[in-house]
């Protein structure tokens, strides 16, 4: 297997590697390396075809710890590689030359913790506003030195260049929220993309440190409000994993059903708005109508339309209400009929095909280096899905069939999402027949998680959501980091978009299915 | 924030104009966060905001007179919201849609560094709609309230109280 081979390579590089229990920690190998060695480690992972999942930082007051998560599509056993530096000399070699996706995480760490990455091409602030005084996620007040404060307001052409910069967003109807891009154009073609994020940075990670686990929990649904249940599941799942809570089977199945309903709702919303971007207004009304049907079902169960707060540690808040399963069944029938309409209306539409086929081609290799996941990755011919690779909730009992397409373009990303709706319907059909009897919540749950760290991943409609919690044994997280799928998917656009027509950029950005508050966190 | 009324008034003509304005509000397509999804749902098939005379969502502020602030105001977006408001054609109205736009919502904590606690700190607001997110019906109600503010009469029959 790949993992064994890479372990050998890493040991040769002097990495202090240890196998850890996955059931408790959420990753399989824990490695420590001196900061000089990290570039070599990244190269080793790259050679074996690993993708970069996340890079994050934890402030232990007298030391800063950088954690790199690597994972493999075919052999999904997560590696967690740690580098420790002193806060007085926070300099680490950048691995952005090997994994350009990691470069963006490094940029984030630079502005939130003050770690400098040697060899990073551009360490300007990505999220924070210019007047910020201190590093937000450091423990205690650590002011930002002037030389590290690089804020990008806009760009001008330099010298005799023929190209020019245009600004797209933050108020732009097709960026779905408040995304801002600076585009360097040569005529109609994009030469370079410089994103400015943070217009919806809502301090999720800082807030988690200030509040207790339970107080923070409702906010998990406000990260990705289009598919919030996957985020709730991730948070709850991480705590269950580190506390060792057994969840009753009935609760597992209820989770599966609600998660899949939410996935369909999310894909429908994407479908409607994406086609609206491309100029088709009718599917928007169709899709929202179907989505309302799901919202009705979920509202009856959870009490809210959008920002659900339904899962609890060890189960779900309320057992299924009368008629829930029947309503789901009715919905499955209705949706199957509707899918035919979508096919007739959109799939064969010449204008739609003309605008999406062969546009925004995201090759497998590029996806790996940026850590793209979810339907975007599955449209590039990789069958990686957290529901299969690390089953959680009811997916342990039966998993979905994965929809994979190989076209890598916007059109295939559309098809994959439609396929996914179909597969989810199949899965739902199986699940509603097999909801076991029994309690819907575990009897005893511990009040506080034990000391240590834990990783948990779920498959949201946009890709792999990950959460990394460091606990010091108190009732508040010491550090909580989200791996947001949209962020990794979006940064691939900085390379993907080069050389593209500006009209295609709109089609491509839309096809990546971004949710900005989730990116900005 | 206070806004002063016009210096010169035209009596009946103004009332007529207000009636026209109230029934043809042009909202701006500007979604900020979660609440924007409910704003979209309000315009879509089931709730159909068009029935109440505010259908034409425009992406450009210069064609709008009605702004629905649907989401959190961070310190980075605040100047943008302000600019957009200033670019809108007068007379113009603002709805603070959702707890975030009213007061910062769930993101307020001690020593927070990135959000503005309420959009009324930067632009004047006419109608506040609480909720996290508010339901689409609430946005329709906000629109009716705004129309009432403009014309002085409630357009939709007030439901009879039974309690
Ligand atoms: S009020 Fe609630 S739903 Fe609306 S933007 Fe704020 S957090 Fe999101």
Task: Please explain how this structure is put together.
The complex is a heterodimer of chains A (521) and B (163). With 521 residues, chain A is α+β, with helices and mostly antiparallel strands. Chain A has two domains: 2-153, Beta Polymerase, domain 2 (2-Layer Sandwich); 224-482, Cytochrome-c3 Hydrogenase, chain B (Orthogonal Bundle). Chain A is 41% helix and 17% strand. A five-stranded mixed β-sheet of chain A has the order 1-2-5-4-3. In chain A, a hairpin with a 5-residue loop joins strand 14 and strand 15 (477-483). The longest helix of chain A is centred in the middle third of the chain and has 29 residues, at 249-277. Chain A is globular. Chain B has 163 residues and is mostly helical. Chain B has one domain (25-150): Rossmann fold (3-Layer(aba) Sandwich), CATH 3.40.50.12280. In chain B, 33% of the residues lie in helices and 7% in strands. Chain B is built from five helices and three strands; from the N terminus they run H-H-E-H-E-H-E-H. Chain B has helices at 12-23, 34-43, 78-87, 99-103, 136-151, and strands at 66-69, 93-97, 127-129. In chain B, strands 1-2-3 form a three-stranded parallel β-sheet. In chain B, strand 2 (93-97), helix 4 (99-103) and strand 3 form a beta-alpha-beta unit. In chain B, helix 2 packs across helix 5 (136-151). The longest helix of chain B has 16 residues, at 136-151. The mean pLDDT of chain B is 84. The A-B interface holds A 128-129, 131-132, 136, 170-173, 176-178, 198-203, 206-207, 210-211, 218-219, 222, 225-226, 269, 272-273, 284-286, 288-289, 291-292, 305-307, 516-517 and B 29-34, 36-38, 40-41, 44-46, 59, 61, 71-72, 74-77, 80, 84, 106-107, 109-115, 132-133, 135. Residues 33-35, 71-72, 98-100, 105-106, 132-133 of chain B line the site of iron/sulfur cluster.
């Amino acid at each position: 297997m790949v993992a064994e081979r890479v372990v050998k390579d890493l040991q040769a590089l002097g990495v202090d590697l240890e196998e850890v229990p996955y059931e408790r920690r959420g990753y399989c190998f824990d490695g420590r390396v001196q900061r000089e060695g990290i570039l070599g480690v990244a190269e080793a992972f790259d050679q074996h075809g690993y993708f970069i999942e996340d890079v994050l930082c934890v402030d232990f007051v007298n030391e800063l710890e950088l954690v790199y998560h690597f994972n493999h599509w075919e052999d999904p056993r997560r590696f967690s590689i740690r580098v420790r530096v002193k806060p007085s000399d926070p300099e680490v070699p950048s691995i952005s030359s090997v994994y350009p996706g990691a470069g963006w995480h490094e940029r984030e760490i630079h502005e939130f913790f003050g770690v400098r990455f040697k060899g990073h091409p551009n360490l300007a602030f990505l999220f924070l506003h210019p007047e910020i005084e201190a590093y937000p996620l450091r423990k205690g007040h650590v002011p930002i030195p002037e030389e590290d404060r690089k804020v990008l307001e806009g760009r001008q052409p330099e010298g005799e260049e023929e190209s020019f910069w245009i600004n797209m967003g933050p108020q732009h109807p097709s960026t779905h929220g408040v995304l801002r891009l600076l585009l360097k154009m040569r005529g109609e073609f994009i030469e370079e993309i410089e994103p400015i994020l943070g217009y919806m940075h809502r301090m999720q990670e800082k807030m988690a440190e200030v509040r207790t686990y339970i107080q923070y929990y409702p906010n998990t649904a406000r990260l990705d409000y289009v598919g919030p249940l996957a985020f709730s599941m991730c948070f709850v799942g991480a705590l269950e994993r580190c506390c060792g809570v057994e969840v009753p089977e009935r609760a597992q199945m209820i989770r599966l059903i609600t998660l899949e309903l939410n996935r369909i709702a999310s894909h429908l919303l994407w479908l409607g708005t994406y086609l609206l971007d491309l100029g088709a207004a009718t599917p928007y009304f169709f899709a929202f109508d179907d989505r309302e049907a799901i919202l009705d079902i979920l509202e009856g169960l959870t009490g809210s339309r959008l920002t659900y707060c339904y899962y609890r540690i060890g189960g779900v808040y309320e057992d299924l209400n009368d008629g829930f399963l029947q309503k789901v069944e009715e919905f499955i029938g209705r949706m199957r009929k509707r899918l035919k309409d979508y096919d007739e209306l959109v799939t064969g539409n010449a204008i739609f095909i003309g605008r999406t086929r062969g546009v925004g081609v995201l090759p497998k290799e590029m996806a790996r280096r940026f850590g793209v996941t979810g339907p975007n990755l599955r449209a590039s011919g990789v069958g990686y899905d957290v529901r299969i690779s690390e089953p959680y909730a009811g997916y342990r009992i039966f998993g979905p069939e994965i929809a994979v397409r190989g076209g890598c373009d916007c059109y295939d990303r559309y098809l994959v999402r439609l396929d996914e709706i179909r597969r989810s319907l199949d899965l739902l059909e199986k699940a509603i027949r097999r909801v076991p009897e029994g309690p819907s919540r575990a009897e005893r749950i511990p009040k506080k998680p034990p000391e240590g760290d834990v990783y948990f991943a779920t498959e949201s409609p946009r890709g792999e959501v990950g959460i990394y919690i460091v606990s010091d044994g108190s009732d508040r997280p010491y550090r909580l980091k989200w791996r947001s799928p949209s962020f990794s998917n979006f940064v691939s656009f900085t390379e993907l978009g080069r050389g593209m027509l500006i009209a295609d950029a709109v089609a491509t950005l839309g096809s990546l299915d971004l949710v900005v508050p989730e990116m900005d966190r | 924030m206070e806004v002063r009324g016009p210096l010169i008034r035209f009596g009946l003509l103004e009332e007529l104009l207000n009636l026209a304005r109230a029934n043809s509000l042009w909202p701006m397509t500007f979604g900020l966060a979660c609440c924007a999804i409910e704003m979209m749902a309000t315009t879509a098939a089931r709730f159909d905001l068009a029935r109440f005379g505010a259908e034409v969502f425009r992406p450009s502020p210069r064609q709008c007179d009605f702004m629905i602030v649907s989401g959190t105001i961070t310190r980075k977006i605040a100047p943008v919201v302000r600019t957009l408001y200033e670019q809108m054609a007068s007379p113009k109205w603002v709805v603070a849609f959702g707890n975030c736009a009213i007061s910062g919502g769930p993101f307020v904590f001690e020593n927070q560094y990135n959000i503005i606690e309420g959009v009324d700190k930067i632009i004047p607001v006419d109608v506040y709609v609480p909720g996290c997110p508010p339901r689409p019906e609430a946005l329709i109600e906000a629109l009716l309230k705004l129309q009432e503010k403009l014309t002085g009469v409630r357009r939709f029959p007030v439901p009879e109280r039974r309690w």
